[in-house]
Amino acid sequence: MKISELSRTTGVPVASIKYFRRQGLMPAGKATAATLAEYGQEHVQRLRLIKALTTLGGLSIAATRDVLTAVDQAHSTESALGAVSYALPVPVAESPVGDAGREAEIGSAAEAEVADLIAAMDWQTPSTSPHVEGLTAALRELRRLDAAYEPGDLVAYAELARSIAGLDLDRAAAFGDPEALAEQAVIVFALSAPVLELLRRLAQEDQVRRRIAGGDTGTGAE
Amino acid sequence: MKISELSRTTGVPVASIKYFRRQGLMPAGKATAATLAEYGQEHVQRLRLIKALTTLGGLSIAATRDVLTAVDQAHSTESALGAVSYALPVPVAESPVGDAGREAEIGSAAEAEVADLIAAMDWQTPSTSPHVEGLTAALRELRRLDAAYEPGDLVAYAELARSIAGLDLDRAAAFGDPEALAEQAVIVFALSAPVLELLRRLAQEDQVRRRIAGGDTGTGAE
After folding, report:
1. A219 in a domain, yes or no?
2. What are the transmembrane regions (chains A, B) (predicted)?
């Protein structure tokens, strides 16, 4: 198809398609004349993926390029998942730092907590993993806010996260073609966090209604 | 304490504190003279919460005000959780719409899928819940991307989400004071999604390493 038809099919303006091409996010079409190129189904799929990453995933063009590079280089379920997981960040913003002494204390406590958790779960995770740093940052922020949670709470959530990861990998393993696999991995990583959070909210809503209906006023007397 | 000390303690500039006051995000200090006010521990906590909502939660000032209003009006675990959950959105961006016919088909399919899921889970959820619309939007986007998943996959994730919601509500029920409860609910809602996602990523990483070490090349032959 011509670029105008590619634009109609995907809803992406011609100028944006050309921009994505120049930025190296999308392979060239097959040249049919000096100023004409033929695009195929792979360009439609790639454009949809770029849209998802930049809108639903909230990624910059540079970050999108990193993810697409990882996708193109992946040759197995595991390496695709691993590469995409490392490339696609989990955003954790942190409050401006206040008292330096308290910050140092909070930092050490959060690091120890993550190390203890990884040991308790027997997780094979290098300390250089971006997810180790991400979780440490999230726990620092919880401590800054004096969030009330116990180490045992974290283990309970980690056990459920392990079950979720098992579902994720089983779904990924069902794919035969590494390219399709890698692209699905990007979709799953970009979209599964909001889906899971929405399922959790719906489940909370149900349990809130049942507990109110049951006359439990939430005073801790359940 | 004076406003200068409040600023030092929290790391929030005096100008920002005054801005939050004018925007109605924070109660006034106790007036001690025409131009002086005394601030207490409740202002320190409130400022930390505002910081978390606007940085880690990524909320606008207007959205932060809505959440704080809900927090101040909550009188029980359940109403605090419910109000905060409705006020604190789960962001779901959607791709620009392409073909109108396909969009209509995608929209109907996603709505039916959410209705079926809620029925299958026996969830008590009004159709006006923002989470119903949020999940429908997320599923529309998955369909636009031709994401490969089965209705059964969604139920499996929903079952785990139910367990997570149970942990959430048990933790909330452990609080006695509704004000502290409501504030903790905000913290948990704002911070627990990235924490859960990071735990899931760490668990995936562990399972990826184990499967690669086990020689499973991810061709679906597990």
Report:
1. no
2. none
